[in-house]
């Protein structure tokens, strides 16, 4: 596979973040920063995104670095909203969307790298332009849109019934 020590660390941390997000989505219908799975997603995604900045097959800044910085920005704003804007209100809509969008964005390089490397010696895809990668990302994007709509509707119902303390 040809991964550096940083690449191996980044991959393991990233896999844990993705699993945590999936667990949180299944249990809460969103990436819930009140839960252990949500907290693991936040911290491990932060670490994974920052370590991605040290990984590159080409010199200089590349689209992967920009994506990593965007993910850091999204989860950071979501965390600030979570900490500073308590209660079920409009800020939860933004928090939910930013965390879900960061998860979707994290899956783009995950799909590309996984399909381009696995199985070892005979990978599923030949590279980022392989149609199977595009089709898979499109499918994940459709799931993201559907999930975001469902989260928005659920949060709006919660907000409507919330009594401010």
UniProtKB/TrEMBL annotation:
Q: What UniProt keywords are attached to this protein's entry? A: Membrane, Transmembrane, Transmembrane helix
TM segments? 6-28, 40-58, 64-82, 94-112, 132-152
Give the top-rank taxon of the lineage listed in the UniProt record for this protein.
Answer: Bacteria
**Protein name, UniProt field:** Transmembrane protein
Q: What is the lineage of its organism?
A: Bacteria, Pseudomonadati, Bacteroidota, Flavobacteriia, Flavobacteriales
């Amino acid at each position: 596979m040809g991964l550096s020590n940083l690449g191996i660390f980044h991959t393991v941390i990233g896999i844990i973040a993705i699993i945590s997000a999936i667990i949180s989505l299944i249990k809460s219908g969103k990436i819930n920063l009140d839960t252990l799975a949500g907290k693991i997603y936040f911290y491990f995604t932060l670490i994974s995104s920052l370590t991605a900045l040290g990984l590159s097959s080409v010199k200089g800044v590349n689209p992967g670095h920009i994506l990593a910085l965007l993910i850091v920005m999204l989860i950071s704003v979501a965390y600030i909203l979570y900490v500073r804007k308590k209660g079920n209100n409009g800020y939860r809509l933004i928090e939910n969307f930013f965390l879900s969008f960061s998860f979707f964005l994290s899956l783009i390089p995950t799909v590309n790298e996984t399909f381009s490397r696995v199985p070892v010696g005979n990978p599923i895809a030949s590279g980022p332009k392989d149609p199977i990668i595009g089709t898979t990302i499109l499918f994940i994007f459709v799931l993201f849109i559907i999930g975001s709509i469902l989260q928005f509707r659920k949060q709006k119902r919660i907000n409507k019934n919330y009594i401010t303390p």
